[in-house]
Amino acid sequence: MDEDEELVELGGPRFPRWVRLGGLLVVAVAVLALIVVRAWPGQGATPLVTVSPSPPAQVVGAWPTAPGSCGARHELAIVSSTPRKEKTGLTMLMGGDRLRAVDFDDNSVTVIDGLRPGEFGDVRTGSTGPLVTTSTCRPGGSRILHVGSGRKAGVAGSLGSLEVLLTGGDGAWVVLSPPDPDQGAGFVRRLDADHWTRLPVGFSPYAASDDQMVGFLEPSQSGPSSRLVLVSATTGRQLADLGQDAQPVATGAGEVLWTTGCNPSSASPCDLHRRRLATGSTATYRLPHPACCGGPGVVSPDGREVAFLLERAAVDSRYEGHPMRPSNLAVLQLASGRLEIVPGIELPPKSSPGLAFSADGRWLAIALDAGPRIRLLAWRSGVQHPYEAKPIRGQVLWAATVATVANGW
């Protein structure tokens, strides 16, 4: 008996041909089942995304503009809305040249004292209540205000000219940038602590959630292109590399979302990625058009939805100020991959509307800069046009901001 025959005997007797064919069939079925499981939405594959039709614009002629803050002229969103037809339960804190608490259902507005003359408030959600950072028409430092349940604003800190405030999850962090990002490292500390943590050289964070910061890492001007990365706010260590061809979309509720392959000069499809910060699990969704404008999106408190800007398929001939396309406002259901376009809203390129979900994720609050006014809208799935409250007279500095708060706040 030669060596080959010994190996066959050690492996056991040869099975009949029908048994071997049956085994191959079982293996093929198992492989097919594995492919189906991996292709299911939320398991790392690209689910099919459906888009509701984009409604036509409601104006004719040049793109509308209005005088804004600091001598600027602001381009306006084109909106088709209706008065409220049902209860929303939305109570909001709005930023701008005044801090205002707004009850969307009864159109009541309460001005909250705290801003100094010439200051504008930028509202964001904090773990113990809304936080506000102030700014003026001239660059410089700012103050941090905390708005409590009694609708009173108190000073919670200050920011130097090289400092920014990041909020998300259960905390707020102050980031100190180096005078020369190519030569030194930045630092970060929790708003309620004094200890500073050193950040990687060249890292510029723009958002935070659950003690993780997301931002761009550019080691040097002569080195490789910047990469989107996650960095621990506690240790300063890099936790994950999200890619070189990456642009931020939204961060919050323990999620970070970003795109790859999105070309703002093309209407071609590209990918939206989602990562759970606690587990590191990821999913990918195929977008029909590029996501827009570098991350003004918002994640719902339960982490099930994300609202963001999605470029329109065609350039609007009335807009000649920038080669980028106007945008729709889109809401993506992360579990199913279902994408809805908020009807009746067309946003100019580089627009940054204020966005906030209600606590239960059912309603999306939308604040729009309208020059001498601020427009406030609410939308949920199934509503043909967004509801609009009475416009609020006032101005914003760079963009409208809004935060939803609990009823009776």
Automatic annotation (TrEMBL):
It comes from the Bacteria. The chain crosses the membrane at residues 21-40. Keywords: Membrane, Transmembrane, Transmembrane helix. InterPro entries: Quino_amine_DH_bsu (IPR011044). This is WD40 repeat protein.
